[in-house]
Amino acid sequence: MSATRTATKPTATPVRRAEALSLFVWEGTDKRGVVMKGEQVAKNANFLRAELRRQGITPKVVRPKPKPLFGGAGKRITPLDIAIFSRQIATMMKAGVPIVGALEIIGSGNKNPKMQQLVNTIRADVESGSSLSEAISKHPVQFDELYRNLVRAGESAGVLETVLDTVATYKENLEALKGKIKKALFYPAAVVAVALLVSSILLVFVIPQFESVFEGFGAELPAFTKMVVGMSDFMVSWWWAVFLAVAAAIVAFVMLKNRSTAFSHFLDRLILKLPVIGQIMHNSAIARFSRTLAVTFKAGVPLVEALDTVAGATGNTVYEKAVFRIRDDVAVGFPVNMAMKQTNLFPHMVTQMTAIGEEAGALDTMLFKVAEFYEQEVNNAVDALSSLLEPLIMVFLGVIVGGMVVAMYLPIFKLAAAV
Q1: Percentage of the chain surpassing pLDDT 90?
Q2: Phi and psi, residue 26, nearest 5°
Q3: d(Cα 354, Cα 337) in Å, to the nearest integer?
Q4: Count of H helices and E strands in the chain?
Q5: Fewest C-beta atoms under 10 Å: which of 119, 250, 282, 292?
Q6: Do 168 and 143 touch, CB atoms closer than 8 A?
Q7: Cβ of 31: how many Cβ atoms within 10 Å?
Q8: At 88, which helix (H) or strand (E)?
Q9: For the stretch 360-371, what's the b/e string if a residue is b when 16 or more beta carbons lie within 10 angstroms of its beta carbon?
Q10: Longest dimension (CA), the chain
Q11: Which residue ranges traverse the bilayer (predicted)?
């Protein structure tokens, strides 16, 4: 029966079939006459009515779910969504739920329409005979090369649920680490942005009011006040040019970073040399390298192929180039620890633990320990940085905003002293 169904299946690609799925709201009664309501994805209303009748529900109303005015397409799919998806499917497969059934449960229970559509597309491909690795390979944006390689290795070894559980843990730890790094970088950047915004408002709206008062004094203004008044006059006349220049600089920076490998490498190298922040980025790259290599190696991916995949997961082009160099050295027979030493990027402890892991045949175990150590180092450094930045930020805001206030009151103090 299954072979006949496959032979008569239309030649349309599974992606197109999945794209035709829509979200419907329905209302009906069960065999006891109890009113039931729900939402479900289906190809069309007739398919959904048939499915409801199969479940013992007499459908009364089946209609497409109206899209809200804002956010109708749903939130974008984040790496954390993929981590949760991996954890859910691994848990269900370990409990004995078939993969198609697991995908159906996950898809119908997801609140994000985009994620729901993605899962249903994968389920449709698996139902048509594709493996899970083949199904997710059609969505490279959501499932990166590392994820696809791990799933493929898990299927080959017959331990797919274990690999998916490992991938879920890996992604959860990686997202937690990224969150710490973003916290370390975002906090000072946000404070600087707020300080500049407040300063601009003072220069454009507040200081001109004081300037009209100063004109009636008939006395010469202090040099500091003259400087601030001059800045205010410039901002009032050319605020639009300043705004355009800042916007153009931001756009140019983003485009240059995304399109120029040389600039991106220069920026990453510069960040690694910054005090405090540079050490955090070093530790983060080592933690990501160690955990990613440990996960891929544990899943059975060959070492050279694993290193090729790991390079892009370090989050820094300096370490990415170093990992490619390690891969080339390992490919010609060098041990991993010796290849790591040649890059001059990995601390002695990391290379020594890698050497011990290679000698004991437990490379993945040692790398997991290295990753845990450096992830904790990042956590501690970020917490320390936050404590250090709080007083510095208060001083910074006091100098910027307080300086303008003092500049405006200096003439008043001078006039009072003269009187």
Answers
A1: 6
A2: -135, 160
A3: 6
A4: 18, 3
A5: 250
A6: no
A7: 8
A8: helix 79-94
A9: eeebbbbbbebb
A10: 105
A11: 184-207, 237-256, 392-412
- Give the mean pLDDT of the chain: 80
113-134 residue pLDDT tens: 888 888 888 888 888 888 888 8
Q: Residue 226: CA atoms inside 13 Å, Cβ hemisphere, count?
A: 5
Are 153 and 299 in contact, with CB atoms under 8 Å apart?
yes
Average pLDDT over residues 246-264: 86
d(CA 98, CA 92): 8
Q: Which residue has the higher pLDDT, 42 or 2?
A: 42
Quick one: residue 268, left, alpha or beta (phi over 0 = left, psi -120 to 50 = alpha)? alpha
CA 400 to chain centre: 33
Prediction pTM value: 0.67
Encoding tokens for residue 44?
Answer: 């069309």
* CA-closest candidate to residue 135, choices 17, 300, 15: 15
Burial of 245 (0-12, 13-18, 19+ CB in 10 A): exposed
Report the alpha-carbon distance of residue 351 to residue 359 in Å, rounded.
12
Helix, strand, coil shares, percent, the chain, to 5:
75, 5, 20
Rounded to 5 degrees, what are φ and ψ at 158? Answer: 75, 25
CA–CA distance, 356 with 362 (Å, rounded to integer): 8
The CA distance from 411 to 419, in Å, is 12
| Rounded Cα distance, 221 and 215, in Å | 9
